[in-house]
Amino acid sequence: MTNSPNDVTPYRLCKADALPPSDQHAQQYAAVRNAHETELLEDYVELIADLLKHQGEARSTDIAARMGVSQATVSKTVTRLKSLGLVSSKPYRSLFLTEKGEAMAAMSHQRHAIVLKFLRALGVSDHTARIDAEGMEHHVSQETLDIMQRFSREQERGGS
């Protein structure tokens, strides 16, 4: 019997994996909700940092183009970023990260790099790894990031 890419054979879970205790289950969902709250903010500050580094400025039009959203959406999000003390701007000038925004961008870049490197070490194509890392970076714990980083380093050294 051969397996085709369309075969959907479920993995067998042990009984304990099928439905965790309710308090653990609630923690899992709370972690996801918390990640979703900061995900967009982290993506914006990360992109602003990249634009500042590579283009010397971070304009709303560039953010809209790179995120595939309207300028109105960018404007709304930038207003939120300003209220949270993550970005600043001056009339007719580009956006700038505050110290708090720079710290968030650095953390987000680090998480992204660890996940991307891990996926590549697993053999995931660069194109797919970049897409997957963009979402995963927000949803993994520090424990998982540490293990991903250790695995990637071991792969670089030849699996020793």
Automatic annotation (TrEMBL):
Keywords of the record: Activator, Cytoplasm, DNA-binding, Manganese, Repressor, Transcription, Transcription regulation
Primary localisation category: cytoplasm
GO molecular function, one term: DNA binding
GO CC, any one term: cytoplasm
Keyword set includes Thylakoid: no
Localization in the cell: Cytoplasm
Top-level taxon of the source organism: Bacteria
Entries under SUPFAM superfamilies matching the protein: Iron-dependent repressor protein, dimerization domain (SSF47979), Winged helix' DNA-binding domain (SSF46785)
InterPro entries from the UniProt entry: DtxR_MntR_Metal-Reg, Fe_dep_repressor, Fe_dep_repressor_sf, HTH_DTXR, Iron_dep_repressor, WH-like_DNA-bd_sf, WH_DNA-bd_sf
Domain named HTH dtxR-type: residues: 38-98
Assembly and oligomerization: Homodimer.
Family: Belongs to the DtxR/MntR family.
Role: In the presence of manganese, represses expression of mntH and mntS. Up-regulates expression of mntP.
The protein, known as: Transcriptional regulator MntR
Organism for this UniProt entry: Billgrantia montanilacus
